[in-house]
Amino acid sequence: MFRSTSRIPIGKLLTRRIHHQTNGLIIPSKNVRNSLHKQQKRQILFKMGNETPARVVGYYVVFPVIPEETVENNCFMYNIAKSEDWPKLATAEPREMYEGTVRMLMDYGATVMEHMEHLATLPPEERKFENVVDPLLTEEYEVNFAFQTLVLKMLTDWPDCNRKLFDADLHHIKIMCARDQMEKLTNKEFQDAIKQLYESKDGLSEWQSRLLEWYLLEIKASGLDKHDDKTRKVLGSWSKFVDEYRSKYITGVMSTNDQQTFVVNDPKIIKDAPPHVLQKLAIDEQNWESGPWRGRMTPHTIYPFMQYCGDRQLRATAWEKWTSKAGFDHDFYNNSINIEELRHNNEGLAKTLGYTSVAEHRLANKMAASPDTVRGFINALTRRIRPVVIDRMESWSAWAARCEMITGELQAYDMPYVCRKEAEHHYDVNPLDLMNHFPFWPTFQNIIGVVGHIFNLEFKDVTDKGYEKAHADARIYSVGDKFSGQHYGRLYIDPYDRQNKRGGWNVMLARPESKERGLDKIVYFIGSAIAPTSTGPSLLHHQQLQQLLFHFGRSVQLLLSQSPYRDIAIPWSPFYASDWDAADMFPTFLQMFVTKPNLLATISSPHIVTNKPLSEEHANSVALTISRASLWDTYRTLFWSDFDLSIYEMEDRKQKFWLDMYKQMYEEYFPFKRAKNDYQPCSFTPIFALQPHMSMYYRKLWAEMLALDIHETFDEEDNEVQTGERLKTTILNRGSGDVAKELFKRFQGRNPSVGAICDHYAPPMTIQEGIEMSENQRR
């Protein structure tokens, strides 16, 4: 299917992009258009020359520079427009990919505007899915494919450039893509048309009806269906202040990232750290093995630092600075007022939309559905897990006194380090030696073997078929059904970390299947495993093994979804209309393989030095170690989930100041006294910096509940192929074609149960006693 972008009226395209109007003293800065071989294409910046006068005397209309890319002179655009089988990952230059994607997005924006004008003249009786929605979906398919492929290229094989410029370019094109695709939902003619189609159901397929329902839910939850001037002004005012204080909150956090660093020069202090952690902490990435290393005031480094730093005083200092970050100790970057303003304005926005609280608004279309459900879930976990944590404190304290010479009470800064070390000692597991059982490609082959067996899937390596790759390390797999022969798509996996690779583990849906174009589905999987060396293969630490399992699970989830539409392929975050608290159910199901000894042994390989297999007893010890070591992190997640819900379920935020609530809940949850300058909510971005994520912190535990509930069903039915096929047909094939709660009930025949996750973290006493008895006998 070939089309020329020149059909778009250039005047209309220009005026659509930036129609910035004010007095005649606006001065645009120079547009920087350097080669993408060295620097990235920059956005246009505008500066006010002076204040707007009382009487406007004239206007300037400032237009952006339009990339001169067309399908005739850009091989990347040509490849997509001609519906060629595989993207130009190697032969297309970075400049062609970036500017080509920008041009396609601008063309699509003009198409949306033209189509909205057409809908205004289309009589209601002539409206059909084919002439209301399909014209936009056709172009969206190509634009999304270009965008996802560009992101893959930027993250895995982009020319060296200034990091800030790179981040800005990636951010700008992400925002541009999201804004252009959501723009149609703001149009009243489009809203009326899809509402009419959805209500009549005339000629709609099941997937088309679900897509329209998703559109309408997003429109309602976002307030886009409010068209009277008064309500629009009120919503605009609330949104304006939400954006303002959100920006101030993030600025406060970002501005304090480098105020403190914590340097380790002695390798003995950090001797337990695996290679991927040493790389994160290394001051010089080229000398990550010899150091020195440092922890910065960012989650990316501070948590690994706290987990592996053996210097207690250094941990104490780092934790004190981390928890006081952007708090009352900072005059200029104190986020306390920003927290209260965010609560106030989000509450006002939610109530204007017809909800009683922020939590009710955010949870309305989620699997949990209401704050009451989440509250019940949190309370059930707290009742089971808190006694275990209190009891385990004795074991942690005894080990710390015996092995680390910590004679006083354990403190918050001790817990990440002590809990990990105590679990490894308790079951006599050496995680660094364990890595020798998990070389990357043999482990990956074992994983696809297990998943292929359970779900009747066949993964065939087709890397040698001549497909272009962004890097030589990548491999390509064709995925199909063993029995029916159905082709699900192809998986592109780039496994290793390297110098010009950015970001971490990631999975993207490059394109859904398109029968009209004769194209199959493509999924991009970006890994971050340690690269092999001349002396040995890439080895996975158990933390990276969990990342591999999780993201491979996401890849399979995307491949098996039969949705013809990207928006409902799976429940995407952060859309209000999607029940994405259940999105991680299947990835977490695979991630939990590390806690199942038989599965862990199956995906392992013989030790690369001794050539001995991972024994059943050793696999059992490893699985127990990972579960035991994760208890404290899970308990802190439970605390933050409770705090998040408590903050946003209030119908009047004036009922309690955020700090008073934090102090009260901290005392309820933790056995040690809160530090005087612990103001961690002031820098806890998952709760306060991301709008749709408010009240959603519980989702990690929710996904674990669903995953462990499914594992329990596999154990009870004892027929993995039959149970796996049912899971595939009732949940995975349906994607987001129905609400997650209904899909789960089709598989289980009931609602989710908290029993499995409670038993995982707090085994029943009889089981726990048996485990402890066998451990004592073994010792």
Word description of this protein:
The chain has 779 residues and is α+β, with helices and mostly antiparallel strands. The protein has a domain at 75-204. 52% of the residues lie in helices and 6% in strands. The protein is built from 30 helices and nine strands. It has helices at 10-17, 75-81, 94-121, 129-132, 134-156, 163-182, 188-200, 206-222, 229-255, 275-281, 299-308, 312-323, 336-352, 358-363, 371-403, 415-426, 431-434, 440-455, 542-560, 585-591, 597-603, 616-629, 631-649, 658-669, 685-688, 699-717, 720-732, 740-748, 755-761, 765-778; strands at 26-28, 46-48, 261-264, 293-296, 457-461, 475-481, 487-496, 506-511, 522-529. The strands form three sheets. A five-stranded mixed beta sheet has the order 5-6-7-9-8, sandwiched between helices. Strand 6 (475-481) and strand 7 (487-496) form a beta hairpin. Helix 5 runs antiparallel to helix 6. The longest helix has 33 residues, at 371-403. The radius of gyration is 27 Å and the shape is globular. 42% of the residues are buried.
Quick recap:
Helices cover 52% and strands 6% of the residues. The protein has 779 residues and is an alpha+beta fold.
Give the key terms.
five-stranded mixed beta sheet, disordered N terminus, globular, 30 helices, 779 residues, disordered C terminus, 9 strands, alpha+beta, two-stranded antiparallel ribbon
